[in-house]
Write a structure and sequence with these properties.
Layout lengths: L6 E4 L9 H16 L3 E6 L11 H11 L9 E2 L4 H13 L3 E4 L3 H6 L28 E4 L5 E6 L3 E6 H4 L4 E4 L6 H11 L4 E5 L3 H13 L6 E5 L25 H11 L10 H15 L5
Parallel strand pairs: 1-2, 1-9, 2-3, 9-10
Antiparallel strand pairs: 4-5, 5-8, 6-7
Helix pairs in contact: 1-8, 1-9, 3-6, 6-7, 8-9
Bound molecules: glutamic acid (GLU).
Length: about 290
Amino acid sequence: MSGTVYVGRFAPSPSGPLHAGSLAAALASWLDARACSGRWLVRIEDVDAPRTVASADECILAQLRALGLHWDGEVVWQSRRGDLYQRAFDSLAARGLVYGCGCTRRDIADSLSGAGMDGERPYPGTCRNGLASGRQARAWRVRVLPGIEHFDDRWRGPQEQDVACAVGDFVLKRADGLWAYQLAVVVDDAEQGVTDVVRGADLLGSTARQRVLGRLLGLPLPRVMHVPLVVDPVTGLKMSKQNHAQAVGTDKPVSALDAAWRSLGFSALPAPDVPAFLAAATARWARRFPMPK
Ligand code: GLU
């Protein structure tokens, strides 16, 4: 595998500890990196300050350590990387690709009847040609050109989305200074040399717009794999912090890892300890998902 570069990452939002869903995403991305003899980075996505819970980052890192999911290099925090996002934003703005938008959610909802691909309403372009008089910018949006974005998902196969139709011009920064996830993730993945994004299927609908943005910024685009979401067996809802998913316990690490492994669709993997479990899982993963070309 010499000469092949693989850099993966796990990018949790610190809005609570790891739960069954985020652990499955972490495990899948760790296994893919290790199966490819690659590096595996951890990035704390605390760019959405209002959703950030104090100490959740330390808790997530402690859970990863306890489960044997060790990372390479230094952990980075998005809240400390605003200069990078500003530079990318400025380069788009200098090319006339950014504009201020004064619409409220209600304005957007009132002007549309349909919903976008991932349940969001596409922005109808109200402020594209300037703010209405008396309006102030509440956010800055990027101009999305018409066209279909095609990509291959290593789990789900060929995908496509017409971002202009399904999403419209999307937000890069809010007037209160908060950076949008979409901009931060694209800038960070490129700046950290990430070649492979492995994450939960809830982010599949964000991939096309991230590729559109990456291309506008002239950045390399990572390969992607979106793994199945873990569903609560009782409610049938996606496991998430919003749905009050329980924190993953680490007192029985092999059981916790095995539950995450089975939630990815694999059969149980009995192992005496964490290193044995992870070695066996890595070998199985490598057979199922050979090194991407
Ligand atoms: N921070 C996002 C989350 O926790 C993941 C972002 C990503 O993997 O691109 O849902």
